[in-house]
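Human: Note token order:
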Amino acid sequence: MRTLLIATAVFAVGILLGVGLATRRGADPPAGSVALPNGAQGAGVPSSAPAGAATSEPPAGASGTARMVHRLAQLATSPNPEADFYANRERVAHFLAQPVPQDPRQRAIYQIRLAREQLLAGDTEAALERFAALRTYLVAHPAVVDDKVRAAVQQGEAIGFMRLGEQQNCLIRHGIESCLMPIRPGGVHVDQRGSREAFRKYMEILQDNPRDLTARWLLNIAAMTLGEHPGGVPRPY
């Protein structure tokens, strides 16, 4: 039982810190990740390694350790944003260097993907600002909005605010109770903006889809970090 509780806590913290957000292209996104609309996954990612990528090989007859060191150096100095799904900063730079699509739907998909990569790269505030701007854009272009676009924005904002709460509290004000579940008084967030907004966003998601178990789970985690669990969670969730 103790092992199960520890594993559950580690899994939850992994979601909140974004460890499990990056996914291989074509794979199903894990809980808490941003599901992109059709045409968005992989859109705008360069198809080859950046210019200047190291191509030299280790000397003939080099030991396995030497080859490993060489390979790790290549990966560290010449990330390929298409092959390396952890190269989020490089993908952000690539997106920002590209012209913004003029077609309204493609423009929305571009902004969703860029905000997602900013979130995965750890630039949480920038990602949230982009999602907020995208909401305004979608109000002015309602024809662009379908269930997938709406869900991508909702999920992106919600997990972004969860991460913001973790960064501002569990990282800056870290204590042992920050990472144990259920979260006890010592782990309640001092700066509650992130979790407060996340709670609101997950309620919005659940109003659209009450059976979204990921949203239910993270709604309860947000309430714990606010010191409002279980009383602050609507009974159905």
Notes: The CA atoms of residues 133 and 183 lie 33 Å apart.
